[in-house]
Design brief:
By secondary structure, the protein is mainly β. The strands form 2 sheets. It has a 3-stranded mixed β-sheet with strand order 1-3-2. A two-stranded antiparallel ribbon has the order 4-5. It is built from 1 helix and 5 strands; from the N terminus they run H-E-E-E-E-E. A hairpin with a 2-residue loop joins strand 2 and strand 3. The N and C termini lie far apart (45 Å). The protein has one domain. The chain is globular, with a radius of gyration of 14 Å.
Length: 74
């Protein structure tokens, strides 16, 4: 599968559902799991609620920013 994505010139892979944050690569393709917006959050990553901001244009990925949402400790 990874070879097929690389041959297809995929630049970025984004996934959700898991209520956590992980950054990794699929071969040469940067990959992110970002599911910190709702549901029962995982505590293993130490990040908690979050979202990603993608800075892109048609020619390139300029950056990916992780934004953590402050916890309401009430």
């Amino acid at each position: 599968m990874i070879g097929k994505l690389e041959r297809g010139k995929v630049d970025l892979a984004l996934f959700g559902h898991i209520h956590s944050y992980y950054s990794y690569s699929l071969g040469t393709i940067p990959a992110f799991i970002s599911g910190g917006g709702g549901g029962n959050e995982e505590k293993l990553d130490g990040i908690s609620r979050h979202y990603l901001v993608l800075h892109i244009n048609p020619q390139q990925i300029k950056g990916i920013e992780l934004v953590q949402i402050p916890q309401d400790n009430n």
